[in-house]
Write a structure and sequence with these properties.
single chain; about 400 residues; alpha/beta; Lyase, Ornithine Decarboxylase, Chain A, domain 1; TIM Barrel; 2 domains; eight-stranded parallel β-barrel; globular; binds ligand LLP
């Protein structure tokens, strides 16, 4: 198996496993393609990359070069976005139960601040009064690939419930804030095209009510991220052209019908831009034929937590055996001392042996960024394939990295 013409086996030999590898050309292609897809004469679209999906500074630089702003969710992300070179005016800060420290960081950076609750405003005003704010509104509905990544609706911890949105904006107006945006992010990993125009219509109807009550002309309407990619089984490819066409149609219609002024449509995709551009290589360390057959590998939930956290299934390829028939049904697990350290159960695999390389594809988003050194298995290295060559962009974490934070008593 290759990634962008470079052999997986050679990468594993040179850099060790577990290892994340990214195709930088693909990331740039994804960035350009999404922008081209949402190009329209009638709608101005602003793109913010949700850097939580993968915040390696070399990846951030690609998005900055392609004209993306950054969607940041913590002071650390803000700092890294600025370090990578994004202009402060092109940062959207979406907190959650924002602390004064968080708000101070966002205010100091000059980011557009997207408040998560009606109560957040008082905390912000103690820090400073920006000209513009946004509220993250929970429109009362949401949808995600898993319940755990459904970020809208009455079970989600995010956003101002729509019923309180008018008061939230009114409070901000009373405080002397004069410019406004509106934001929602209702779920991640969505593969249904209809969901996006449906949610946007619902949201814009709600914004129409707010406009009627308060006379606000929203400068931008942010419909969040959420574009899914196919992972495994019945997953299909999201037809993003249809999503773009239909959402922009709704956007234009609703702006006119509800007299919403001249807002920009903002998007903050993460997964869709980097997910299919990365893979994770691991090596089989042991095969146990016990009550069940286990293929144990040197990556675990410490390396890629999505399966343990959400039951997410990645495609898993045995390097060099892509064309072989499947001949065994196995559970694939890591080495962590937890019974949840399982990537998949009852997966049909070709004859797999100790030493084989297992490649988890579609691992560019929410992979390395969620890795941790639990059990003191250090965080993996990362390699970029750029200009036809492999280059180490993150060295493997070491004992020295780990111990450097400890102080003696
Ligand atoms: N904007 C906000 C405010 C968000 O909370 C998120 C994701 C995004 C944008 C980007 O969503 P995307 O386009 O990537 O779907 N760790 C999970 C995904 C959690 C997403 C949380 N918020 C996973 O591995 O599937």
């Amino acid at each position: 198996m290759n990634i962008s013409g470079i052999s997986i086996r050679k990468l594993a030999e040179k850099y060790g496993t577990p290892l994340y590898v990214y195709d930088f050309k693909k990331i740039r292609y994804n960035a350009q393609r999404l922008k081209a897809t949402f190009k329209s004469d009638g709608v101005n679209v602003d793109f913010y990359y949700a850097m939580k999906a993968n915040c390696h500074p070399e990846i951030l630089k690609i998005f900055i070069e392609e004209g993306y702003g950054m969607d940041c969710v913590s002071p650390g992300e803000l700092q890294l976005a600025l370090f990578a070179g994004v202009k402060a005016g092109h940062i959207l800060y979406t907190g959650n139960y924002e602390s004064p420290v968080d708000l101070q960081a966002a205010y100091n950076a000059g980011a557009k601040i997207n408040l998560d609750d009606i109560s957040s405003l008082d905390r912000l005003l103690k820090v400073g009064k920006p000209e513009l704010i946004t509220y993250r509104i929970n429109p009362g509905k949401g949808r995600g690939k898993y319940e755990q990544i459904t970020t809208g609706g009455d079970k989600a911890k995010f956003g101002v419930p729509y019923e309180k949105a008018v008061i939230a904006y009114k409070n901000a107006m009373d405080a002397g804030i004069t410019r406004f945006g509106a934001h929602m992010m209702t779920g991640s990993g969505v593969l249904d095209e209809d969901h996006f125009p449906y949610m946007l219509e619902l949201f814009m109807n709600e914004l129409g009510e707010i406009k009627k009550e308060l006379g606000i002309n929203f400068e931008f309407i942010d419909m969040g991220g959420g574009f899914g990619i196919p992972y495994f089984g019945d997953d299909k490819t999201l037809d993003v052209e249809t999503v773009a066409k239909e959402t922009m149609k709704v956007f234009q219609q609703k702006v006119k019908e509800l007299d919403l002024g001249n807002p920009t449509l903002a998007l903050e995709p993460g997964r869709f831009l980097v997910g299919d551009a990365g893979l994770m290589i691991s090596r089989v360390t042991g095969i146990k034929k016990g009550y069940r057959t286990f293929v144990g590998i040197d990556a675990g939930f410490n390396t890629l937590i999505r399966s343990a956290l959400y039951g997410a299934q990645h495609p898993i390829v045995v390097d060099g055996k892509e064309d072989l028939e499947t001949s065994m049904i196995v559970d694939i697990c890591g080495q962590i001392c937890e019974n949840t350290d399982i990537f998949t159960k009852d997966r049909a695999m070709p004859e797999t042996e100790e030493g084989d390389l297992l490649v988890f594809t579609q691992a560019g988003a929410y992979g390395s960024v969620m890795a941790m050194p639990y059990n003191l298995r250090y965080r993996p290295a990362e390699v970029a394939i750029a200009n036809g060559e492999a280059k180490l962009i993150t060295r493997r974490e070491t004992f020295d990295d780990y111990i450097s934070r400890f102080q003696t008593l």
